[in-house]
Amino acid sequence: MDRIHICDLLVRCILGINENERREKQDVVINLTLYTNLHKAGKSDRIEDTVDYRALKKHVLALAESSRYLLVEALAQAVAELCLAQHGVQQVDVRVDKPHALRFARSVAVEITRKR
């Protein structure tokens, strides 16, 4: 299956269980791999024949920025469901990184795969 990658999408949102994480937005990095069939779009060169990843990016940003999840896992699941609702997306890999979540670690990440 063909893939579209959206790499290192930076968003600021409320995410976490600690008191300070519930008050102030923090940086979160989202990476997506969308599995779809790109054969028709490759032949036609028409946006209607592919996943509109610009529109999807806007939806992911809006979802994350307005969210108040306690767990990284919950944000990843919500993003996966949003992606699978897009026409043509059969499967998605979602990775959500939370930089500086742990002392002495650059990041903590959750990666999930969901299918239609």
Task: Write a structural description.
By secondary structure, the chain is of the alpha+beta class. It has a single domain (2-115), classed as GTP cyclohydrolase I, C-terminal domain/NADPH-dependent 7-cyano-7-deazaguanine reductase, N-terminal domain (GTP Cyclohydrolase I, domain 2, 2-Layer Sandwich), CATH 3.30.1130.10. Helix content is 33%, strand content 39%. It contains 4 helices and 5 strands. It has helices spanning 19-23, 39-44, 53-66, 72-84; strands spanning 2-15, 26-36, 68-69, 91-99, 107-115. It has a 5-stranded mixed β-sheet with strand order 3-1-2-4-5. Strand 4 (91-99) and strand 5 (107-115) form a beta hairpin. Helix 3 (53-66) runs antiparallel to helix 4 (72-84). The longest helix is centred in the middle third of the chain and has 14 residues, at 53-66. The two termini are 14 Å apart. The model has no long low-confidence stretch (mean pLDDT 97).
